[in-house]
């Protein structure tokens, strides 16, 4: 059975478990209808011109895992940012693991979507925010909405500065031959509040996984949100990550995406401005090899005056991997004095590596400063020569240059332990040990 | 019923005569509206074309029938009804106007601003000219010089008759009949166009221009141009004219093919200033053009365009850099005002080793217009050391207009070096203030700044063209500064 048909028929089974009278019922049914109509995106669509899901969709994915799986903390410790204390929301094969998690209701809510869906005390927040900013036309987002059942729910009240970072980790154990999970996160950050979030998807063995995640982030007035996405999964994992961010005036939201692992990774990152003097930052480092495919699809929608957005994506592609960057800056008529900047630098290391880039500007306001730059090139030969001449072996010299190339993004990580971790991952990825912290 | 008086009769007669006059004017063989195989055959027969040409047209027509009009461009317009168009109309024999006094004064005003001589004005506006104009004699000597060098420069119908081997070999080799919807339509029904062949090692001594090819003045709405530069030759070709042309044909779907063989160089400059519609956005020409050049080893093709006219422009002059060490260049200024829409850019397809391309695109939008740059830079897997530099700058004037960039960059080779940058900005208040302060009125200051903004492209135009193009920019943006 094709995955699409399977999903539609599983929805009927899923429908039986949920409350038909709830408001969500209509949201879900219209979402599944949209998916039924549009199906999985194909390369014929402009937004998916460079990324094909066909090979991924061939697997016979289980939509609802049959087994309850447990994992030992010591086996997965390395995936946590264990050097510091954090709040943790951990899921195993799409199900909440209370054993590994560390949630809270003191001063802020760090808990589960499943309780947010059912418990009356969350109803008001859910009514105001759930599925409000997510694109209802987009087929994969609709698919997620239809099945949305579990994920992280974070509500930071007004003026609360969250004392430690929040980690959201989705493990897949590989108990099923092939598993599809659809986590749904909702993050509401109140006025003047500040929060740091780290999200990670990790599979524990080579069985294929398809994750179709949707995250909605609402940043109220003057809120500060730092969001880090670590994508360093095994070669059998596929990730479609849809993130929608709504910002109110003077809020600062930054999203860093580190794509090192996974088979096919698609990041849809959307920023919508709903106030003046907003600052949005989108940064990413992609280092891939083998047959990996990473596609960054970003949209910054400037709808109000005096806002800023900064994008900086660095991509290093080796072997026969493919890197895609599709960035769109949309400036509405009202959004005067917009300062939008977009930069995408790519390095191709091998003959079969492919880079496709499509940086776009759509501008309807005249008093704006918008620019984008995009480069594709190689490592500087003279710099390589210089280092080799001074006794640095070729491999290390290469690694140093690549590290320098991505440093602009690494530097802006605000959690020092995370910065160290990312540096470590990069060093591993490049296969070098320089004997000092890169 | 009112009495039928002599006066009434007189009025009736006058009208009738006018009617007749009118009929004799267009009687000149206009085909019935609509398009089918018979019409295609008839066009081909009319032009006395050989069998292979008829077949070629029919093949294109059959392909066209299967195609749908593309919708991906960032333009909105009412789609033309292809069955309501008459696909063949012989060039008009009668002049449109008897004297300059009858010509639209607005048009004359523009001529004056462009500094076009009176005789030329008459010719451009379609006024009867009795005296032998300077340019005619220029054209004659011109033709003589060209013939001496072995250069063939004639209309494409003439070329089909006289040089069928060249046409057959090259037509459709760069833009195949099935390339796209409008190229297919053009291939099926093209009425005329230019043909140019530069023999081996010849450097064309002058700028070739359709403007000088007087006898083939109005080439109609489906123009086909084929330029072949044989090994080691050089040619600079000018198309269009800075003077505004009023054209009753709403749809223009031209195809231009350039072939630069080994070591050859073609420089193709266009100034397009068709009727953009009135200030409310009514009327105006739809300009859907397919332009493409093929570069063999060490060859170079350079496109320069100044686009100020047309209600809707849809145009992507491209270079296929097939040979090693070949070079493609694209310099463009696109100005849109009022309700104009332009979706224009280029494609650079790098196939050969050490190929290089440069793209400089300047978009200026004013009024309520929309101006888009859409470009593709593609590096093939075998294009070692390919190099591209692209720069697209947009200038916005007023908050009703839009500027968009859609660059596509695809690299399949690790040795490729690609750089792309784009900026969007408005004319700085401080810049205008600086000029004002020194006694330069705002309108002049804007013209000055726009000129500076477009300098990189204007510099690439042949000299006489550049001067006129500069004035044209000024005129196109007139009244857009509030």
From TrEMBL, chain A:
Coiled coil: none annotated. Transmembrane segments: none annotated. GO terms for biological process: iron-sulfur cluster assembly. InterPro entries: Fe-S_cluster_assembly_SufBD (IPR055346), SUF_FeS_clus_asmbl_SufBD_core (IPR000825), SUF_FeS_clus_asmbl_SufBD_sf (IPR037284), SUF_FeS_clus_asmbl_SufD (IPR011542), SufBD_N (IPR045595). PANTHER family: PROTEIN ABCI7, CHLOROPLASTIC. It comes from the Bacteria. Residues 4-168 form the SUF system FeS cluster assembly SufBD N-terminal domain. Residues 176-405 form the SUF system FeS cluster assembly SufBD core domain. Belongs to the iron-sulfur cluster assembly SufBD family. This is Iron-regulated ABC transporter permease protein SufD.
Automatic annotation (TrEMBL), chain B:
Residues 124-204 form the SUF system FeS cluster assembly SufBD N-terminal domain. GO terms for biological process: iron-sulfur cluster assembly. Signal peptide: none annotated. Pfam families: SUFBD_core (PF01458), SufBD_N (PF19295). Residues 212-453 form the SUF system FeS cluster assembly SufBD core domain. Belongs to the iron-sulfur cluster assembly SufBD family. NCBIfam families: PRK11814.1 (NF008773), sufB (TIGR01980). This is Iron-regulated ABC transporter membrane component SufB. It comes from Flavobacterium fontis.
């Amino acid at each position: 059975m094709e995955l699409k048909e399977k999903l539609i028929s599983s929805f009927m089974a899923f429908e039986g478990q949920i409350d038909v009278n709830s408001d969500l019922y209509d949201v879900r049914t219209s979402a599944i209808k949209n998916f039924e109509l549009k199906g999985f995106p194909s390369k014929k669509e402009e937004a998916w011109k460079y990324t094909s899901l066909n090979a991924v969709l061939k697997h016979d994915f289980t939509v609802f895992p049959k087994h309850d799986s447990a994992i030992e903390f010591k086996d997965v410790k390395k995936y946590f940012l264990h050097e510091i204390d954090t709040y943790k929301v951990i899921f195993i094969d799409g199900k909440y693991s209370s054993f590994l998690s560390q949630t809270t209701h003191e001063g802020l809510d760090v808990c589960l979507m499943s309780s947010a869906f059912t418990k009356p005390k969350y109803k008001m927040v859910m009514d105001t925010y759930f599925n409000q900013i997510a694109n209802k036309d987009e087929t994969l987002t609709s698919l997620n909405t239809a099945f949305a059942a579990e994920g992280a729910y974070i509500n930071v009240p007004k003026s609360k500065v969250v004392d430690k970072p929040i980690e959201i980790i989705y493990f897949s154990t590989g108990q099923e031959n092939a598993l599809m999970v659809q986590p749904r996160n909702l993050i509401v950050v109140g006025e003047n509040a500040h929060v740091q979030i780290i999200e990670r998807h990790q599979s524990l063995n080579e069985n294929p996984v398809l994750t179709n995640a949707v995250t909605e982030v609402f940043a109220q007035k003057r809120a500060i949100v730092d969001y880090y996405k670590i994508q360093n999964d095994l070669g059998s994992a596929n990730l479609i990550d849809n993130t929608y961010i709504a910002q109110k005036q003077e809020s600062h939201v930054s999203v860093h995406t580190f794509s090192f692992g996974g088979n096919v990774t698609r990041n849809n990152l959307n920023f919508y401005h709903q106030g003046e003097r907003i600052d949005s930052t989108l940064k990413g480092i992609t280092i891939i090899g083998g047959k990996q495919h990473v596609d960054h699809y970003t949209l910054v929608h400037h709808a109000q005056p005096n806002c800023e957005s900064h994008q900086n994506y660095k991509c290093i592609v080796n072997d026969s991997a493919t890197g895609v960057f599709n960035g769109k800056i949309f400036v509405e008529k009202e959004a005067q004095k917009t300062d939008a900047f977009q930069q995408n630098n790519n390095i191709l290391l091998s003959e079969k590596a492919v880079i496709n880039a499509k940086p776009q500007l759509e501008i309807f306001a005249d008093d704006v400063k918008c620019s984008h730059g995009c480069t594709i090139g190689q490592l500087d030969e003279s710099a390589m020569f210089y280092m080799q001449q001074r006794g640095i072996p070729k491999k290390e010299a290469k690694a140093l240059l690549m590290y320098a190339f991505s440093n602009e993004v690494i530097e802006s990580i605000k959690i020092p332990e995370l910065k160290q971790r990312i540096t470590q991952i990069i060093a591993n990825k490049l296969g070098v040990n320089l004997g000092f912290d890169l | 019923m009112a009495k039928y008086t002599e006066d009434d009769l007189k009025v009736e007669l006058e009208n009738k005569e006018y009617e007749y006059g009118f009929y004799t004017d267009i009687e000149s063989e206009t085909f019935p509206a609509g398009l089918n195989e018979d019409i295609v055959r008839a066009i081909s027969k009319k032009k006395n074309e050989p069998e292979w040409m008829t077949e070629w047209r029919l093949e294109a027509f059959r392909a066209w029938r299967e195609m749908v009009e593309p919708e991906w461009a960032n333009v909105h317009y009412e789609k033309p009804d292809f069955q309501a168009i008459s696909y063949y109309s012989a060039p008009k024999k009668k002049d449109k106007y008897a004297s300059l006094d009858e010509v639209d004064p607005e048009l004359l005003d523009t001529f004056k601003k462009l500094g076009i001589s009176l005789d030329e004005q008459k010719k451009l506006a379609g006024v009867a000219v009795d005296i032998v104009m300077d340019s005619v004699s220029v054209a004659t000597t011109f033709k003589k010089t060209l013939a001496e060098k072995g250069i063939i420069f004639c209309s494409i119908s003439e070329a089909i008759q006289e040089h069928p081997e060249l046409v057959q070999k090259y037509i459709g080799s760069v833009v195949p009949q099935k390339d796209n919807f409008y190229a297919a339509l053009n291939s099926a029904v093209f009425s005329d166009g230019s043909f140019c062949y530069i023999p081996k090692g010849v450097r064309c001594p002058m700028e070739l221009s359709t403007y000088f090819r007087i006898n083939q003045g109005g080439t109609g709405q489906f123009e086909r141009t084929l330029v072949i530069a044989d090994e080691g030759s050089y040619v600079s070709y000018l198309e269009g004219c800075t003077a505004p042309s009023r054209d009753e044909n709403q749809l223009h779907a031209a195809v231009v093919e350039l072939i630069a063989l080994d070591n050859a160089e073609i420089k193709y400059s266009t100034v397009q200033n068709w009727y953009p519609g009135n200030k409310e956005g009514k009327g105006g020409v739809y300009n859907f053009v397919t332009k493409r050049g093929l570069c063999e080893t060490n060859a170079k093709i350079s496109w320069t365009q100044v686009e100020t006219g047309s209600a809707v422009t849809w145009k992507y002059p491209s270079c296929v850099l097939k040979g090693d060490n070949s070079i493609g260049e694209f310099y463009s200024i696109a100005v849109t005002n009022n309700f104009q829409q332009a979706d224009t850019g280029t494609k650079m397809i790098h196939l050969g080793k050490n190929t290089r391309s440069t793209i400089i695109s300047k978009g200026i939008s004013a009024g309520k217009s929309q101006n888009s740059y859409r470009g593709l830079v593609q590096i093939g897997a075998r294009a070692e050391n390919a190099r591209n530099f692209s720069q697209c700058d947009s200038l916005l004037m007023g908050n009703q207009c839009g500027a968009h960039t859609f660059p596509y960059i695809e690299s399949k080779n690790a040795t490729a070096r690609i750089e792309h940058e784009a900026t969007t900005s408005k004319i700085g208040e401080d810049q205008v203030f600086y000029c004002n302060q020194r006694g330069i009125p705002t309108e002049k200051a804007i013209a000055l700044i726009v000129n500076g903004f477009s300098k990189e492209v204007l510099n690439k135009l042949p000299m006489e063209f550049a001067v006129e193009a500069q004035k044209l920019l000024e005129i196109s943006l007139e009244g857009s500064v509030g």
